[in-house]
Design a protein that fits this description.
Strand 7 and strand 8 form a beta hairpin. The chain is globular. The protein is 0% helix and 53% strand. The protein is mainly beta. Strands 2, 4, 5, 6, 9, 10 and 11 form a 7-stranded mixed sheet that branches. It has a 4-stranded antiparallel sheet with strand order 1-3-8-7, with no helix packed on it. The mean pLDDT is 94. The protein contains no helices and 11 strands.
Length: 122
């Protein structure tokens, strides 16, 4: 099993940057398929980015967000630049213990963090 704890959210003006962190405990996080999702009020949870060697991004964040991992620290990151008001959401870190054919769907992910709020003001 793995436990995930996100941090780094906050309030930022449009055009600004934030870096989210996801600290993993338990099994070594490098053995998992890791992802970031977000959920805005009244909307479904949506894919943002994923990584296991190769990185994957939602079209809406491509070129602005960067997912990365530090195996030594067992920590996943999401660097978010050029933030827009529509990026406002709770951001969740997730781990998929066995790749089930999709990195962008919610269902295949076994473990989730508690989420961290990101608010972008216009």
């Amino acid at each position: 099993q793995v436990q995930l704890v996100e941090s780094g959210g906050g309030l930022v003006q449009a055009g600004g940057s934030l870096r989210l962190s996801c600290a993993a405990s338990g099994r070594t996080f490098s053995s998992y398929f890791m992802g970031w999702f977000r959920q805005a009020p009244g909307k479904e949870r949506q894919f943002v980015a994923a990584i296991r060697g190769i990185t994957y991004y939602a079209d809406s964040v491509k070129g602005r967000f960067t997912i990365s991992g530090d195996n030594a620290k067992n920590t996943l990151y999401l660097q978010m630049n050029s933030l827009k008001p529509e990026d406002t959401a709770v951001y969740y870190c997730a781990a998929q213990s066995l790749y089930r054919g999709s990195y962008s769907s919610v269902a295949p992910y076994d473990y989730w963090g508690q989420g961290t709020q990101v608010t972008v003001s216009s």
